[in-house]
Automatic annotation (TrEMBL):
Protein name as annotated: MKRN2 opposite strand protein-like C-terminal domain-containing protein
InterPro entries: MKRN2OS-like, MKRN2OS-like_C
Domain MKRN2 opposite strand protein-like C-terminal: 75-234
Lineage: Eukaryota, Metazoa, Chordata, Craniata, Vertebrata
Transmembrane domains' residue ranges: none
Highest taxon of the lineage: Eukaryota
Length: 248
């Protein structure tokens, strides 16, 4: 379970749906998530869907006038932070039992994590042992683990070999799941242990759970929660502005 900061004011909650490690349909929101455009007009910060791409065709949803913006005021494209984990290689993935809806701070759904190989197969530790899944992670938060310059064919082959060997260790059998759970490890312990296994093989210092969580996970889950709240509002009402509530 990844700890969330309960002292922060939560964004507008998304509507949860019921599923199990599978994509879900948020209330009134089509399957899949697109980009948002953020711009200033009518003394407000406004969010709309990512089209039209050409600012010359952009109209303010409040005053209905064409938006004329200078170079420094150009709309900012906000990319969807939730992606298909099976389309990403060599990454740390975060999903939930409720799919994207589980990323809301209002939701108590436990987050589940895994590691993808070079072909998008996700390895995760459960009470059945290490699972290798080719589906079920279509709505995930992605933490890339490999720098673009290091993403070579030979590295991918080594990554896959190491991940398979690591997953077959007796440490990660199903009958030891409760033992790991007692120490608060489970899926997170498996994923972080593999990351540190790779780092040690490269002569690097291992990373602590606290550091990895604060630097790579919390800011991404918070951004996803805010994005979902705004995106759902835009899909239902056509736009979102900070005059109505706080956006990302």
């Amino acid at each position: 379970m990844i700890v969330r900061d309960k002292n922060k004011a939560p964004p507008t909650p998304v509507t949860p749906a019921t599923s199990c490690f599978a994509p879900v349909l948020l209330s009134g929101v089509p399957m899949g998530f697109g980009d948002l455009l953020r711009f200033r007009h009518c003394d407000r910060t406004i969010f709309t869907l990512g089209e039209p791409v050409d600012p010359a065709g952009l109209r303010c949803p409040i005053c209905r006038q064409a938006v004329r913006l200078g170079l420094m005021e150009a709309p900012v494209r906000i990319h969807a932070p939730i992606r298909d984990g099976h389309q990403t290689a060599c990454s740390f993935l975060i999903t939930s039992q409720l799919g994207a809806a589980g990323f809301s701070e209002e939701n108590e759904s436990e987050l589940h994590v895994g590691i993808s190989n070079s072909k998008g197969v996700v390895f995760s530790y459960t009470e059945l042992g290490v699972q290798r899944q080719q589906e079920g992670w279509e709505q995930s938060i992605i933490v890339p683990l490999v720098a673009p310059g290091d993403d070579t064919l030979s590295f991918r082959m080594l990554w896959d070999q190491q991940l398979e060997t690591f997953s077959n260790l007796n440490t990660w059998t199903g009958d030891r799941f409760q033992e790991h759970r007692e120490f608060g490890s489970c899926c997170y312990g498996f994923a972080l242990s593999y990351i540190n296994h790779v780092m040690r093989s490269e002569g690097k210092e291992p990373i602590t759970r606290e550091h990895f969580t604060s630097q790579y996970i919390l800011r991404r889950t918070e951004a996803a929660s805010q994005y979902l709240s705004v995106y759902q509002h835009v899909c239902l009402h056509g736009y979102y502005s900070t005059a109505e509530s706080h956006g990302p």
